Amino acid sequence: MSAGRPNRIRARVIHPLLIIVIGWPLGFAIGAEDNQRQLMRRSNRVPGIAEHSAMMHEATSNALNPTTAAGDASVPIAFTKIVEIGDPAAGLPDGMILEDIGFHILLESISDPADLELPASIDRNGTVAFLGYPIVPGFPNDDAFCTPVALYNHVNGENIFLTQNEGPAPGTDDPFTGITGTPRIDDGRTIFFAGIGDNKFSATLGLWSFGPSVQELEFLQDSNVPGMSPAGILDTPFSFQSTDNLTVFLGGIDDPTIDDIRPQGLWQRRNGVTTPIALAGNPAPGFGEGIVYGETDGNFFIGTIGTFDITPDGRIVYTAFFEGPGITRLTDEAIWLADGDTTEVLVREGDPTPAGLFSPGSTFGSPSITEAAFFGVGFTPISINRNGVVIFEARVEVPGDPPRVPSLWKWENGEREMLIRGRERGVAFSEPGDPAPGILGGNFFAFTFADHNDRGDIHIRAFVETNDNIFDSTFGIWADRGQGIEPVAFEEGPVPEMPGVNFLPEINNVRGIGLSILEVDGSILYTGRFIDSDGNVAIGLFRNNPDGTSNFLFKTREFVDVSGDGTDLRQIARFNPGFGTTDDGRKVVEFVFVDGSQGMYTFDALFTAGGPRVDHALTTPFSGYIDPRAESTDGRTMDLGINRVSIVFDQSVQGRGGALLDASAFTVRQTGEEQPPNVTSVITHDQRFINLELDRPLTVGEWTTIVADVENFQGIPIASIGDLGSEDNEPDRIDIGYLPGDVDQSGLVSPLDLLAWRQQLNDIAVPEQGTSLDYLDTDRDGAVTPLDLNLFRRLINGISPASQTWAGATLNSERP
After folding, report:
1. Between 24 and 351, residue with greater pLDDT
2. Under 8 Å between Cβ of 490 and 34
3. Is-contact 774 780, C-beta < 8 A?
4. pTM exceeds cut of 0.85
5. Rounded Cα distance, 232 and 281, in Å
6. 502-515: buried (b, 16+ CB within 10 Å) or exposed (e) per residue?
């Protein structure tokens, strides 16, 4: 995915022996269709896409607004070489060259980008992890002259050899038998699946991570993993996600004490220590005694764990089945959020849906038997962002007909909000789903995928029925960037920057819209099929921008300049984008050219129409906020207050002139005569989320303004338009006030503040921004309790530990 976000990879569930047999000649290319957060599942494809009339193109062209913006296709895209076939095989004996890269040419020749395991991954700093196939030219490809798979990093223009098949496997006494799947990389740590053993037809599968100074085994098949019974061992590994020093891993369990058909476990490995998150047979948190993770349905296609997602700081959301006294098929699944030492149930089958959305008595329910067989569970897909907001799909059990309604939901701070309602596939007499913007007479009826980023932008892949006919359907992509659901692209809809050209419908089970990837800035990159001006079927890469405009980037049969100076033009035969995005908005892509050459390159992928801006929706405290909480612990010194601020930008930033971010990039000033606090520490994670520490709390009674002087990685500075006053947020600064007792944010402490306190506590009033803790957590301990109300009254009346009577107090100045 993108810079600063967790690595995600999902391996197709195949018997290990079959993986070894297939993987040896093909580079262990498993997981071609199931990469979590990247590729649609082909099992979700529905046949019978009918042709639409020319009227649909006219109706949707304006909706999609395929206008040219930054990154105009008329401006050549700059490509930077990572590696090409024919390059020397670094780290191996002289004379060896790379005969292939990414995935073996046989797979690439029969697949398109929507069906391939992605070829490589790039981290936020620009380090690339990829697989290579070294040979000695002129000799047959047997073991004497061919190393089937080698693992490389590309760092600062140089290919660095990490390991190879037949190389030693750390943590074991065996060599690698087959390195499989796309290696993933995060801040220089490369993580990959591999088989070990002397026999490639009976290899043991495991997961390894190679860092700058550490090479270690993460998980190994046939080993006992912490949390399992003495008789239990790890069976087939399925998938993992990683971020920084955390790896979360899903695998099968072989344990004679568990009678489930397909028992599974979910583990985390943090700083070299492995601990269980959820294991078949273990107690299911949040439920009564005797309720354990397990499979009530007993369905061969369903394992204990459904799917999972993680945040950069290590929060883990997952779906799982459970069994025990009183648990039935319609109440045996839930979503949990594991956050450090606590695990919380977010929603379970059988919970009532929020009032007013469905018929009385409707509940979150189970998928149909067919869907369970193909898609596993009812609460999929699932996605969590840095702010702890969860997106999930659920089937709703509605009394009467139809029995189930697919729908997309958002969970935030304990509240469940329905985003889109669909219609049960195959039930023609059910109520239609919500209207699908961009498609005339279209209604959503099935969702194959949904995720969201840290900004809260939502990316949706869905099927839409037209004219109330589920057999007349279209597949497409939609987005919600805070302005409601908007179309991105769909089959038979207009192709950006190509007037009169439409994407193809499904033909022979090949979709007109391929893979799609949501980026950190809200851009969505996607592939689509269409007929080019020469009458040939072409596959193009497109970008839908945060402002809703769209761009064409490149396509098959097009010439691209891989040298950057016009001296090396090559015609694209196939292409395949990779995982990840750098801080400066570059991605990696593999090209196979018409002349037979092949290589991996980086290119500018994200929307850069202007300089960075403060993302006021994510910045905390938010601009315009007046802190109403306690100011003193002893009634004398004002030693409480905000001294940490997290400023979030809409794109990655650096100091002016390419400098590292430090305190010099931020200016602090305040109203009044007193000197403002100073920035003492600047901590960054992904160059968008910047944490500032101040040398003291903000000054009571005043407004404090923090101004950023930064630029993006293209050198474009942040816009500075000065102070706009109390009505608007500025692009380069935030204003924070401090007035104890001012819950209603009026700038005056009055009896209305006590009313506002009680209304928020009882959910009668909801703050427009922030959470209830920002207003009601008077003692700043992270929870709202009766003690907070008592302390709030003391603030108003000037009773210790209040430093004065705050009733009637005002801020000394207007907001800058």
Report:
1. 351
2. no
3. no
4. no
5. 11
6. bbbbbeeebbbbbb
